[in-house]
Amino acid sequence: MKKVKKKRHLFITLFLIALLLAGCGGSSQAETVQNDTVQTQNENVSAGAHVLDTGSTSSADVHVLYADKTAQAAAQEHDQEENPNPAGRLRSLSHEGYILEQVVVLSRHNIRSPLSGSGSVLTEITPHEWISWTSNPSELSLRGGALETMMGQYFRRWAEKERLFPENYQPDDSSVRIYANAKQRTIATAQFFATGLLPTAGLEVETHVEYDSMDPTFKPQLTFVNNAYTRDVESQVKELYGDDIASLADNYRLLEDVIDMEDSPAWRSGEAASLRTDDTELILKLNEEPNLSGSLKMGGRISDALVLQYYEEQDDEKAAFGHVLTKEQWQKVSEVKDTYQEILFATPLLAPNVAHPLLIEVKDELENQNRKFSFLCGHDSNIGSVLASLGAEDYTLPDSIEKKVPIGSKLVFSRWTDADSNAWISVNLVYQTADQLRGLTLLDIDTPPAIFPIALKHLEMNADGLYAAQDVMNRFDQAITEYGEIIKKYEKGDDSASPAESNF
Length: 504
Description:
- This protein starts with a strand and ends in a 13-residue tail after the last helix.
- The longest helix has 23 residues.
- Helix 1 packs across helix 4, helix 7 packs across helix 11 and helix 12 crosses helix 13.
- The chain is of the alpha/beta class.
- It has 15 helices and 13 strands.
């Protein structure tokens, strides 16, 4: 096991620099109310910018790879979109009348630069220059560090309010754990969070493998694959996400318009063409992450880079290469990468396969009676696959352009006891809203991040939004066991499953 020591003076300096940088950039976004297209230009848009009219792209002539979802499922999705959180967004992680005993946080890293740097395909599919970052490709930005420090400060104030931590808490070696995947963006996120959480404690970040490699605990790799399993996964993707893929035509059109792809070097050379809804293929290989090829893969990369640019760049026009997008359009941009990630890591047959080591890790933390606070820092794939493995109900996050696992978001398991010494667990997604991310909003008890309660299928919350602790632990056991059941089922060599009707 390796530990990365926090150099307090360095991170305080970086935090101050990030705040200074943020103070130089803020500009408000002019929004135009629209349904499918933007028809009028906001009078506040500067002369050099223009509002995108995405038009309406018909998919009637496009061969759809997947079958449509059932009408019932589509209706449920519509209801979810219209009322994404019937209980309303929580204002606190607290539960009056209960004593906080333990917190386990599974975090996505905060704002990073795009995964592809100079000379990559991203530079060839647009005539524009992507923004200059304060970090190397795939690394945490200074802005991301500042935001993560703020999130750590919020958790400190909440933990002190609930008397989990005394003021200026100096934990022993076992009561607080900070563990990260060995990538710069995850280690740095953990360091900044720890600085905000316990600034006087000199916390160390624990890593388990060589720097810049993927820790098997956090790597969402397939440890079992065969032909029958692959065909059943394809069939499941077709059933669950076929309609989502087929409906991305307008999203693709928007991506192409934002980056002005038809004016790009790759387009002029014939190396790039319009994104399509009928060329998606699933790739499953042993000891590798699940993958997709085709337009959804490329669209996901473009979408990811634009979303990160939106968070990092405060000039609305620069963030969209001279265009002005509404919040709704930014959500359409993000929807492409969200769909890509959900297919790969939330498909029921895939999730337990890729999440198995992390499920064990989180369960072990929850069972550690000496632990007060655990912070495990990984990626959106980690949170998505763990939630899917635990049987989370479908959800759509409010106040975020990313609807499933926003940048810097945290899956928080908090353990409580009531007056009768009964144990309870609360399960929430905690994330900075799009406005908080772009505005570098300072967080405290009165100005919290967004807190979204997670509903677990077939488990009932009590009136205070808590699950019986044993029910949650049993759900972890079921998810861990599911991995073994999948292997047992498909190792029998039953190759009778018919291939999915797709060009996979």
